[in-house]
Recover the amino acids of this structure.
């Protein structure tokens, strides 16, 4: 990784993950459940200090670009999760187990950043009848188990178009 | 507030983290800290003993909370005495250990200090649950110390030691729970007030708690049938650690003395004197098991360990009589047997160091360096241990025998103490003869690689302990004078209660 | 109304827990059991949340929070153990 | 004062020889001799007073609570014995100087000898029976050292141990006897006891006391059936034998018989016990002596026999018997010491003590032979020698004694004893010094240097002179001694050579004739003897001892067989039995507390618990599965805590659960993954019963307590929590404030645990464990994926969140469930998660925290919080809390509980991480893999160039 | 409800004791863990059972559970955690040293001194 | 509390409860581990999610404050559930090496990471397949 080690800028050093800082301050204020200046100060301190402390575990900034798209992606996933659950519930409750077309499929990945791949894998796991089960040894394709997928090609296509394509825009 | 009372706990509690923090990598500095702390504890012991000498019980309310709600430390003559004994032992053992033993593993001195802290705390606390906490401190430190230096047998014995004590600790909590569940308090003085008022419908619960607690203390005190852990642990522990452990059995005895005089003593109403009926037979069986074990032992360490069991039997026999006279005798024997056992364990260490490959096994082998000097020390310590004259063991036994004369079980007590003494004499005679005399008949000489680790300082340590035994013997009069006062104070439970609660 | 819903909720969680227990006892593979336990932890979280609603107190939520965190960690630890033997490598 | 000095001098002087030996053997001997001489001189300075019939006393208190005083007194009896001990001791010292060879450590010898001498003098001068007991046992100990002096000789060692076992054991019996005696009288001072004869003899405890004291006396004096140790003690160097077994140690028993005479003697019990034992011993030992081929063996049995004689006399308990006994003690000491020294000279010169290999020494070493013959003749009771006189007196007393109404028994036995005595004495003369000169000696024996034979010669001259002038030389001494023994005025008597034609004279003559006859037909007699049975006392003792040791080993070592399973079964069984017994022995009523209704959820939880316990029990041999089951049980317990209003406990339990699970998993990597089936059915049933009873007991106790009401001190905590402790979470306020000391101890436990684990595992890297780790091969297949990417990414997000949650839980703990401990655990677990994701090595490189130091800082911070209060003279851990107004921020509550909780927090994080880091370090040591440089195995975003295709 | 608690404590104790009496360190440690659960719950229950009365002072609270046993149990949990951790480490070290995780010492080991090096 | 809020809360609880049941029924009913894995990953998590939202609304309703804990719990659950499933699947694959041939190819020069080591130097990682060689 020697080639990745570059001189960190001031902001990279002292505010390595601004989004995380924001999240933490928000989280702190919500945890306190009441607004005081003291609480905010404390939250700000923690919000700055914790990312600095943990930055060695997360050396690179996550390459998120399109925050709006990220939000819409989340909404899409949330909807899909609910739908997926209804589908899975139906499968579980009303289908004889033998009639399920379970199968493994390989999803070749265009994504490269670990964060993006993880989000994709997570999304796949939380949505219709699919669980991301393994990565290839070089991390470039995903093994997915489908609970009921009559057509493997279509399942792969759906995952790639519905999720990966969007993620590629968020994590360029 | 008499802040001196907390210092025997606080000093090691501060010194230990400082050793961990600052001088972990500098053994010399760690030794300086450790020895200095031991010396300070000895001075503290002396000061506290002086403060307790007037017969007034003093209390130290931690956190300045009113009694019986906060935790209290109580200084009386007994706790002062035990602190001094611990400090003497601690100083001697640390002297022996810094001769090289402390290098065998990490964190010896920190663990050692914390072990002393646990012991001191157990002697000072006036709160039942806090006693549990200090038991755990001294135990967990002892786990670390016991396996110091490593080796397969020691490790496996260590596992046994840990497991047995974990079971003991579990039952300790059950007993505390029962007592709290019935009386609603944890402060010993407060318990002493509330126990007599426990109604008939709760007696069974209270007494079950009391007796379970007795056996829990019995585990520490190596009382039959919970004595099994001791020989393996003590015989396999490193010499200085085993020597320090000599005081640990006394923590059990101390707790029995404290609880079953103060809380479940004569004033405990229906539960009064609950311990005696069980303690006496168990103590006598312990005595027999220990001394028969001395005869049966196959190594010197084992022999001394069984000797410790036997001496605990003797001590608890005295305790079980629950009279001031017997208690005073028992306390004298307690002082003596602690020092004698520690001396012997250190001597075992000297032997082990000089018999490469053989250790302290009772097998004939060529003689070794300083065998004569060690044999002399062994002879003295052994006669102390078995209770032959002129050393304190004999006086202690005489005192106990004399104190037992009004007991219903006097015949049992006398005959078992005397007969088992003979077994011990024969056992130690065999052991010493095999190790030191028979070896003279064998050609050759055992050589260690380089000088044995236990050098001059180790001999100084042994010498100090022997001197302490001689001191105990020569000044038996003044010492028993103090102990008589101690025992009388223990039975003056009203004074204790009012000192703590008022 | 919420009361009835809660009753149903408790019933559901309890039924789920019993089913989890059945899987835990039945196995057959170790991973089945780990999965059963993991599910049990999530169901326990549901139980705690419902209990909090029923008792109108938020005091118990930290427990649910920790359970969510630690259930994950212990499941991962079991899996790592199966995968590598060494949990922290 | 100087009376005590007589006792103390030998003890103080015992240091001298060890120091002086560097100055040479002569200096050593002279130093030793001077000590004894000085003591003897001091003793003699009291002679006038003693002979005036005065009692010299001196004393101090030693252990007043016990009545153990350092009191000494000197009367005739003490004077006689002290003179013998010191006088003969002096001769022995001179003799030993020549006897011991260059190789023998002479310093040790003289040290032991002086110790022994001091102990003996102590016995005879003690005016306190407890003090006497001390000296008594000291003689056993010092004689143990002396007998075992030649430690390379097995006989010496065995003899020493036998002597110690027998005499030491007898001493223990005597302790009991003396304690009884002291308790009857109310004092342990001899002079007091001696004045209370009626009290003692009227006491119901008289007989046990008598028997116990007699056991002590008889063992020491080698009376039947304890006689067997003495001959084996002859393995000691001859000076030792001469000293211990003629004049001193064995006479200690006799001394005590004499000493206790005034209070113990005169009863039937005394007569039958003492006389019978003495008589039987006298005859038996004399008979055995006749057939002993070892010179010292012969003398040893002879000593036993003569001691029997004196014992018998004391048993008769008449004043004249006492006189005879005292006289014989004196005479025996002179001739027997001379004979022992003589035997030593023969051994030294001829190289053997075997009578069968000796003979004809008369011409080779005339001086030695002459001395031996005179002494032996005295032993035989030949007229004109001192032995004759006292033996005559003995026979005279025997004539008047009846045993169970039979007047002939004692005289006959006494004559028989005398007869054997004559026989072995003449055998000593005839078979050693007379007869043809032998030529098979290793080198030609000749008389030794004067220093060697002068001591026996001095004694022999006494033998003759007392024999010739008994009244002049011994009369006053015997008189004053016997008076002291009986404690009453003596009848008039006169020690003279000729008493007329008394029955005793005829008995004496018969004995002489019979004895000579036996020697004349010795071969024949010996053949008859050898045809008879010969119980081998030593063999029996050894067998007995071996059997005792084996029995002890069987009993104890098969009980203490190293089996933890057994220990725990006993232990748990003990708790169960005691618990049930305690419960059944006391009254118990039914609880009246209103019970809570059982909810369906609780019932389900209960079923779950039963289920997982069943899984844990039935499938426990599959270790991972058992762990899973146990942690589910823990989970149910935590939910239980939560349900019953203990959120803090639930939080703690859940957190501890996870850490424990990970800890066990880390260890399980190395341990076998399956537990072998080892317990047989019976064992399982046994364990099942113990377990069921334990469960039943604890469950029943729990039920009994929680179904009744009680009042506890807790109302105080609820009331004071906010005003006094400054927090609304009472549990936390108790932890950091009301009972902060417990918590201080608790974090120390945790710190110690971490340090101990560190020490344990650090040591595992070296030695045998280290070698095994180095050769470690995983025992189950390993997946190729070490650090899966998804986990790494998930923890990147979770770590900051979890840290935040952990800090929040710590900071809010004072008012809401939480606190430093739980917060610390949460933070630790968050870090562990990181370690799990990316491995120990990589993660450890990112967190450069010294966990040891963190523990230290944590304990110190918590401790310092407590100590600060002491600066204002408040007790340790006194808390303070106040509200501070800060600009901009507003009111902020500042409580000392917070830094205390931060100390707890730091210790917890340090402790948990130190323990886990060390456990996982072992794994990385054994994995034989290089460190991972990145957090995950594969980073697809890394430049393609670095991905080499295979 | 009291019966459920008491019987659970009993069952946990029994299961713990049974595992405690096994021959290998591992089940013994698990047994101790179960025993610890039982004992902690027992101690906790000594403050008597109460539902939804957590000892956190507030105006709305109807009452409070006994906070003292809770504090004691908290200490006990922590302590037994430390103890268990040491037991695990020691069992592991013993296994690494001697290649056996049997809890019993053989006869010869009873007197065997550990290496000094 | 408003009726509509109560209704929503009740609905959430009931629906959540249904999903909780479904998840566990699936766990029992489905034939093999990989199929069973789908049930708790989705259904149970969603069920708990329902309860959490219900709780959040409930306390918002009675206290007027948004309780953050539920959000945090939900976040944790949704963050961890896929990771848990991923690990369970990997462990399952690892324990069933006979499944290896049934898996589709990765379409890459390397196999699935559970079975095959990552490329040398991919992340400075020097693992080789031999060391992880399987015994069975
Ligand atoms: Na999970
Ligand atoms: Na767990």
């Amino acid at each position: 990784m020697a080639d990745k080690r570059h001189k960190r800028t001031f902001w990279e050093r002292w505010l390595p993950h601004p989004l995380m800082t924001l999240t933490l301050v928000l989280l702190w204020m919500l945890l306190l459940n009441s607004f005081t200046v003291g609480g905010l100060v404390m939250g700000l301190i923690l919000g700055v200090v914790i990312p600095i402390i943990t930055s060695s575990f997360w050396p690179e900034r996550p390459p998120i670009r399109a925050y709006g798209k990220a939000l819409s992606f989340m909404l899409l996933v949330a909807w899909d999760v609910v739908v997926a659950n209804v589908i899975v519930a139906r499968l579980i409750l009303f289908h004889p187990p033998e009639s399920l077309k379970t199968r493994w499929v390989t999803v070749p990945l265009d994504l490269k950043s670990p964060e993006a791949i993880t989000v994709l894998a997570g999304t796949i796991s939380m949505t219709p009848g699919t669980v991301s089960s393994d990565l290839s040894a070089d991390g470039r394709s995903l093994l997915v188990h489908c609970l009921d997928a009559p057509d493997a090609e279509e399942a792969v296509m759906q995952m790639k178009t519905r999720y990966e394509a969007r993620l590629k825009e968020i994590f360029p | 507030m008499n802040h001196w009372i907390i210092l025997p706990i606080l000093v090691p509690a501060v010194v230990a983290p400082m050793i961990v923090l600052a001088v972990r990598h500098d053994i010399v500095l760690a030794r300086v800290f450790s020895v200095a702390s031991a010396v300070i504890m000895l001075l503290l012991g002396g000061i506290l003993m002086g403060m307790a000498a007037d017969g007034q019980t003093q209390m130290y309310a931690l956190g300045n909370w009113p009694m019986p709600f906060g935790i209290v430390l109580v200084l009386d003559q007994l706790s002062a005495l035990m602190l001094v004994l611990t400090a003497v032992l601690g100083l001697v053992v640390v002297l022996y250990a810094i001769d090289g033993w402390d290098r065998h593993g990490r964190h010896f001195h920190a663990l050692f200090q914390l072990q002393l802290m646990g012991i001191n705390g157990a002697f000072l606390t006036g709160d039942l649950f806090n006693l549990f906490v200090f038991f755990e401190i001294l135990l967990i430190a002892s786990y670390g110390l016991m396996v110091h230096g490593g080796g397969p047998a020691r490790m496996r014995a260590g596992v046994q030691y840990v497991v047995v004590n974990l079971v003991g600790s579990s039952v300790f909590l059950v007993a505390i729970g029962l007592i709290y569940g019935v009386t609603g308090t944890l402060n010993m003085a407060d318990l002493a007030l509330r126990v007599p008022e426990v109604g008939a419908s709760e007696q069974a619960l209270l007494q079950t708690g009391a007796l379970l607690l007795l056996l829990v203390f019995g585990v520490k005190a190596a009382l039959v049938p919970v004595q099994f852990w001791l020989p393996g642990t003590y015989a396999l522990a490193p010499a200085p650690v085993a020597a320090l452990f000599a005081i640990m059995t006394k923590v059990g005895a101390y707790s029995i003395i404290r609880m079953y005089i103060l809380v479940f003593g004569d004033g405990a109403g229906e539960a009064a004197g609950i311990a005696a009926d069980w303690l006496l037979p168990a103590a006598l069986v312990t005595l027999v098991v220990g001394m028969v074990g001395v005869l049966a032992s196959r190594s010197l360490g084992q022999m001394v360990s069984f000797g410790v069991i036997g001496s605990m039997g003797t001590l608890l026999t005295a305790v079980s009589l629950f009279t001031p006279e017997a208690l005073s005798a028992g306390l004298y024997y307690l002082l003596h047997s602690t020092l004698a056992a520690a001396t012997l364990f250190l001597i075992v260490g000297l032997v082990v160091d000089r018999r490469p490959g053989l250790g302290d096994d009772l097998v004939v082998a060529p003689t070794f360096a300083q065998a004569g000097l060690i044999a002399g020390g062994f002879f003295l310590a052994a006669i102390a241990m078995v209770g032959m004259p002129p050393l304190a063991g004999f006086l202690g036994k005489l005192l106990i025998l004399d104190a037992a004369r009004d007991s219903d079980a006097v015949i049992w007590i006398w005959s078992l103490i005397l007969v088992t003494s003979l077994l011990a004499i024969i056992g130690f005679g065999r052991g010493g003869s095999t190790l030191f005399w028979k070896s003279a008949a064998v050609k050759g000489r055992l050589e260690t690689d380089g000088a044995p680790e236990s050098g001059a300082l180790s001999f100084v340590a042994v010498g100090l302990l022997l001197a302490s035994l001689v001191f105990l013997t020569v000044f038996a009069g003044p010492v028993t004078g103090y102990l008589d006062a101690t025992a009388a104070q223990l039975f003056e439970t009203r004074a204790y209660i009012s000192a703590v609660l008022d | 109304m919420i009361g009835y819903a809660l009753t149903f909720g408790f019933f559901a969680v309890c039924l789920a827990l019993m089913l989890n227990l059945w899987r835990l006892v039945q196995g057959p593979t170790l991973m089945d059991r780990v999965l059963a336990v993991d599910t049990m932890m999530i169901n326990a979280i549901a139980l705690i949340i419902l209990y909090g609603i029923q008792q109108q107190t938020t005091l118990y939520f930290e427990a649910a929070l920790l359970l969510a965190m630690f259930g994950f960690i212990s499941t991962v630890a079991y899996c790592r153990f199966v995968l590598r033997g060494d949990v922290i490598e | 004062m100087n009376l005590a000095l007589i006792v103390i001098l030998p003890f103080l002087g015992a240091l001298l020889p060890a120091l002086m030996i560097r100055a040479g053997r002569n200096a050593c001997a002279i130093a030793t001799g001077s000590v004894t001489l000085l003591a003897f001189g001091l003793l003699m300075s009291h002679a006038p007073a003693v002979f005036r019939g005065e009692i010299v006393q001196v004393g101090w208190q030693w252990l007043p609570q016990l009545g153990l005083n350092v009191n000494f007194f000197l009367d005739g009896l003490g004077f006689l014995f002290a003179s013998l001990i010191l006088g003969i001791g002096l001769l022995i010292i001179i003799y030993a100087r020549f006897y011991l060879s260059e190789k023998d450590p002479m310093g040790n010898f003289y040290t032991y000898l002086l110790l022994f001498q001091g102990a003996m003098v102590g016995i005879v001068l003690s005016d306190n029976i407890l003090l006497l007991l001390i000296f008594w046992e000291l003689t056993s100990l010092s004689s143990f050292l002396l007998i075992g002096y030649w430690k390379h000789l097995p006989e010496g060692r065995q003899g020493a141990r036998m002597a110690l076992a027998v005499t030491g054991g007898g001493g223990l019996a005597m302790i009991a006897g003396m304690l009884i005696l002291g308790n009857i009288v109310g004092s342990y001072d001899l002079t007091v006891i001696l004045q209370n004869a009626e009290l003692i003899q009227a006491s119901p405890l008289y007989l046990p006391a008598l028997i116990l004291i007699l056991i002590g006396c008889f063992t020491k004096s080698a009376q039947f059936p304890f006689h067997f140790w003495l001959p084996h003690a002859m393995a000691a160097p001859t000076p030792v034998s001469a000293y211990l077994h003629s004049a001193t140690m064995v006479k200690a028993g006799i001394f005590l018989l004499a000493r206790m005479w005034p209070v113990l003697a005169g009863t039937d019990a005394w007569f039958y016990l003492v006389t019978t034992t003495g008589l039987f011993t006298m005859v038996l030992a004399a008979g055995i002596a006749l057939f002993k081929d070892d010179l010292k063996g012969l003398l040893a049995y002879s000593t036993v026999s003569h001691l029997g004689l004196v014992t018998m006399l004391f048993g008769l308990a008449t004043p004249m018997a006492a006189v005879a006994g005292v006289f014989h003690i004196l005479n025996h000491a002179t001739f027997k010491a001379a004979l022992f020294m003589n035997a030593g000279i023969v051994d030294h010169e001829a190289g053997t003590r075997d009578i069968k290999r000796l003979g004809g020494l008369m011409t080779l070493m005339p001086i030695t032979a002459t001395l031996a013959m005179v002494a032996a003749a005295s032993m035989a009771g030949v007229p004109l020698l001192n032995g004759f006189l006292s033996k005559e007196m003995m026979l005279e007393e025997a004539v008047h004694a009846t045993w169970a109404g039979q007047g002939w028994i004692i005289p006959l036995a006494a004559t028989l004893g005398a007869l054997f005595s004559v026989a072995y004495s003449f055998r000593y003369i005839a078979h050693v010094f007379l007869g043809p000169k032998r030529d098979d000696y290793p080198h030609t024996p000749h008389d030794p240097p004067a220093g060697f034979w002068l001591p026996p010669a001095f004694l022999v001259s006494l033998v003759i002179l007392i024999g010739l002038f008994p009244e002049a030389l011994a009369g006053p001494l015997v008189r004053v001694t016997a008076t002291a023994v009986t404690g009453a005025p003596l009848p008039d008597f006169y020690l003279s050579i000729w008493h007329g034609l008394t029955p005793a004279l005829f008995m004496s003559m018969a004995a002489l004739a019979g004895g000579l006859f036996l020697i004349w037909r010795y071969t024949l007699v010996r053949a008859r003897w050898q045809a008879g049975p010969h119980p081998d006392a030593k063999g029996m003792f050894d067998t007995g001892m071996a059997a005792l040791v084996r029995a002890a080993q069987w009993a104890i070592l098969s009980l203490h067989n190293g089996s933890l399973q057994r220990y725990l079964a006993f232990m748990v069984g003990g708790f169960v039995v005691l618990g049930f017994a305690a419960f059944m022995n006391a009254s118990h009523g039914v609880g009246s507390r209103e019970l809570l209704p059982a909810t369906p959820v609780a019932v389900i939880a209960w079923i779950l618990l039963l289920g997982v316990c069943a899984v844990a029990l039935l499938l426990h041999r599959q270790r991972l599965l058992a762990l899973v089951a146990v942690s589910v049980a823990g989970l149910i317990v935590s939910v239980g805590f939560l349900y019953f209003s203990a959120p803090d406990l639930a939080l703690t339990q859940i957190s501890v659960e996870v850490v424990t699970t990970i800890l066990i998993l880390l260890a399980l990597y190395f341990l076998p993954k399956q537990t072998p089936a080892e317990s047989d059915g019976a064992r399982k049933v046994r364990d099942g019963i113990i377990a069921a009873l334990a469960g039943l007991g604890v469950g029943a106790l729990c039920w009994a307590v929680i179904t009744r009401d009680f009042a506890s001190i807790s109302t105080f905590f609820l009331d004071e929590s906010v005003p006094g402790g400054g927090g609304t979470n009472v549990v936390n306020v108790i932890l950091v404030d009301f009972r902060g000391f417990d918590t201080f101890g608790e974090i120390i436990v945790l710190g110690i645990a971490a340090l101990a684990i560190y020490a344990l595992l650090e040591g595992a890297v070296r030695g045998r464990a280290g070698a095994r780790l180095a050769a470690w091969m995983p025992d189950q297949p390993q997946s190729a994926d070490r650090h899966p990417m998804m986990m790494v990414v998930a923890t990147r997000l979770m770590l900051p969140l979890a840290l935040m949650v952990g800090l929040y839980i710590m900071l809010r703990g004072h008012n809401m469930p939480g606190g430093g401990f739980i917060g610390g655990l949460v933070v630790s677990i968050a870090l562990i998660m990181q370690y799990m994701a990316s491995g120990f090595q990589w993660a450890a490189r990112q967190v450069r925290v010294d966990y040891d130091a963190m523990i230290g800082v944590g304990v110190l911070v918590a401790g310092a919080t407590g100590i600060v209060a002491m600066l204002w003279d408040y007790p340790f851990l006194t808390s303070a809390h106040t509200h501070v107004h800060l600009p901009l921020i507003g009111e902020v509550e500042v409580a000392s509980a917070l830094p205390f909780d931060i100390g707890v927090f730091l210790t917890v994080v340090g402790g948990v991480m130190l323990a886990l880091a060390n456990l996982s370090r072992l794994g990385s040591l054994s994995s034989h893999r290089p460190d991972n440089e990145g957090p995950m195995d594969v980073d697809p975003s890394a430049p393609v160039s670095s991905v080499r295709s295979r | 409800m009291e019966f459920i608690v008491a019987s659970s404590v009993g069952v946990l104790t029994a299961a713990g004791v049974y595992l405690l009496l096994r021959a290998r360190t591992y089940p013994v440690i698990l047994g101790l863990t179960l025993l610890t659960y039982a004992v902690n719950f027992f101690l906790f229950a000594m403050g008597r059972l109460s539902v939804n009365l957590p000892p956190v002072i507030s105006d709305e609270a109807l009452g409070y559970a006994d906070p003292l046993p809770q504090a004691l149990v908290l200490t006990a949990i922590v302590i037994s955690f430390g103890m268990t951790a040491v037991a695990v480490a020691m069992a592991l070290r013993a296994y690494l040293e001697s290649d056996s995780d049997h809890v019993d010492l053989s006869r010869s080991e009873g007197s065997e001194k550990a290496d000094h090096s | 509390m408003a009726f509509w809020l109560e209704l929503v809360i009740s609905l959430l609880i009931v629906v959540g409860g249904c999903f909780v049941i479904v998840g566990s029924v699936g766990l029992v009913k489905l034939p093999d581990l990989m199929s069973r894995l789908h049930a708790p990953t989705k259904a149970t998590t969603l069920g708990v999610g329902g309860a959490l939202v219900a709780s959040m609304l409930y306390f918002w309703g009675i206290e007027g404050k948004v309780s953050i804990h539920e959000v945090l719990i939900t976040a944790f659950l949704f963050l961890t559930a896929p990771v848990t499933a991923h690990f369970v699947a990997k462990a399952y694959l690892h324990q069933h090496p006979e499944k290896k041939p049934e898996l589709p190819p990765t379409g890459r020069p390397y196999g699935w990471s559970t079975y095959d080591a990552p490329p040398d130097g991919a992340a400075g990682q020097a693992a080789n397949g031999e060391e992880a060689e399987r015994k069975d």
Summary: Chain B has a mean pLDDT of 92.
